[in-house]
Write the structure tokens for this entry.
Amino acid sequence: MKIILVGFGIIGKGVLKAINLKSEHLKKKYGLDLKVAAICDRSGAAIDEEGLDLELALKVKEETRKISNYPEKGCKMDILEVIGSVNADVVVEVSPTNIETGEPAKSYMLKAFETKKHVVSANKGPLAVSFKELVTAAEKNKLCFRYEASVGGAMPIINLAKETLAGNDVKLIKGILNGTTNYILTKMEKEQLDFDTVLKEAQELGIAETNPHQDISGLDTAAKIVILANSIFGRDVTIKDVNLEGITRITPEALVMANKSGHTIKLIGEVTDKKLEVCPKLVPVDSPLNVMGCLNVAMFDTDLANDIVVVGTGAGDIETASAILSDLINIHQTIKN
Amino acid sequence: MIFLDLELKDSPGELLKALQPISSAGANIFSVIHMRENKTRDGRVPVKVVIEKLNDNLLHSIIENLEKLDVIVAKINEKRKKINLEIVVVGHIVDTDVLDTIDRINEIGTVVDLDLTMPDPIAESSARMRITIDNEKLKELYDEFDKIAKEKGLLFIKSC
């Protein structure tokens, strides 16, 4: 199976590392021979329909920051042109997210569907903004569109609800879907530090981004629950429909007050067929939702299986690549059958 | 038969006090199970009382009298009646008239405990409230929280 990798940042590099690491395992266990026919970044692309040398691609990117410097096969071709012209089965879309317009990732995905390529994405923006348009384009062209990595990183959420829990009526999903805010609240609680101090430390450690607005305002979690609302609950909503409150007003004293009644405070995203909410909530300390540090957690309330809880790493290059790889394997098996 | 789930303060004589309004109303008590080992989060002792079937008016008057004695009637026939709600509030709680905030909550439920911390005269303060409320009035209370939050710039952190 040939893929085009769009986006060669932390996640893109993680995808190549995971493919490299698992290539023999994928061949043996699934009969899947993954070849990367093209890699695109802002500088251009490297193209070889017979399969690029992944270690060389990673080396070129590391040393020059531009994939267009890949020897002989590097070029300045535009990403849309690469998607349209290179012969491949799947586009793996992991370019930077834009949760206001979803662009340019949305156009990349539409171009992929238009040129009969399946899509695997880790990109929240286009899914939160234009879910229906993208799903319709995939269905119209009878193509697979999978996006497990867009919510909860390595943690199975979308595929768990749609496939493993198939037959169940999922009544509610709630949980912590942003590791940065969980890290900040955990640290504030443990060390009685104020929000600004912990945020600064998280930025120095690379846990929070230089511009942490999307995380701490709850927008990142909101984008994820919109994806869950649309993909699992069959709703047609966008971020604007989310009742949103971030964690910037949480004080160490508020956490002490919560502790006094046997609770802690977590930024919880909650979705049902009517509700769409992201806000700090009191969580009992003995609840499975009380996970620490950068961990993510999701609780499903279902009619047959009752409560199901998944806990995992919500971010990270290899962790996200794990979800992408599972989507690629699923597409391979779908094509085979 | 009617099954009542009561929650009593953990002090001597409370069980006897709680049975008084039932026996005074002339209702037969079939059984009383005192569950000292399963205390509630706020330290109350759950008691299950089974009484004979009564008409609605008599039952209502018994419940009213129990509540006057600070007995929480948590469930009637397994249907949850009262809940104990914990919330944390962040903001300028005192400066925005804390009495008015409590009065407005008390019109819907009852604030039974308040713990307030003011680390700095300028910084926002934090408070913990425990509210006892009829289950069916929960949405009304949450709507009032939203109203107060907008008016006074307070953040109400509700239970998950």
User: Anything to note?
Assistant: Chain B touches chain A through 22 residues (CB under 8 Å).
